[in-house]
Specification:
This protein is mainly α. It has 4 helices and no strands.
């Protein structure tokens, strides 16, 4: 079915013209535009781990900063 179908499609395309597809994008935000929470902190921690050959003791400060970033922020209204 594959070869015959492909030949039939080509025959139709030669008579009717090539098929085209029109794609419209909407105003939905792309994944690339969305900021990743704590991306800078994660990058700094990963850079430290890579440069210290996996010695996590040397990267403790970066780890603590990353954990602080990941911790949900509490507001004063949450305590009231």
């Amino acid at each position: 079915m594959g070869t015959g179908s492909a030949m039939a499609h080509r025959a139709v395309d030669s008579v009717m013209g090539p098929r085209t597809m029109h794609v419209e994008t909407t105003g939905a935000p792309s994944a690339e535009a969305a900021p990743v929470p704590c991306a800078q902190q994660m990058s700094a921690f990963q850079g430290c781990v890579d440069s210290s050959n996996g010695d996590l003791a040397r990267c403790q400060m970066y780890y603590e900063v990353l954990q602080a970033c990941r911790k949900p922020q509490t507001t004063a209204s949450a305590w009231n």
